[in-house]
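--- STAGE predict ---
source: upstream dedup step, 1 unique chain passed
mode: sequence only
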Amino acid sequence: MDNMGDDPLGDAESFDSNWRKRPETQYLHWTREKPRNQIQLAFRRHWLTFQKIIGDRQGRARCLEVGCGRGSLSAYFADDGWDCSLLDLSSTAIDQAKKAFTENDLQGEFKIGNCMQMPYDDSSFDLVFS
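--- STAGE serialize ---
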C-alpha cells in the first residue's frame, strides 16, 4: 500500500489511539540518576554509544529524533546542551514528549509529522537519528 492511511493496522490514527491507551507511554526511559531498570540502562548505553561516535564538539549542535515517541533518547541530547527537535506521526506521542521535557526542565522543539515528508529544510541538523 502506498498510503499509510489505507492500512487500518498501520495508519496514524491507530498508532495514536494505541499511544493513548497504553500506560507505559507515560514513562520516560531517561534519567540523570543511575538507571533503575533494564530499559533505562539500554537508553543510557545508547547515549554513551552516541557520545563515543560523536566525540568532543565545540559549541551547541542541532539534532533531530525521527519517530521520537516519548523522547527518551532526545532527553540525553537536550540534557547535554543540544538543540533538539523531536518529530513523530502521533500527536499523543508528541504531547507525552513535551510533558516529559517540561517535567525534567529540558528544552526541545516538537512537531507532528511524517518522516517521508520532513517539515525541515535540508541540512538543518548536525545529527539525525531514529
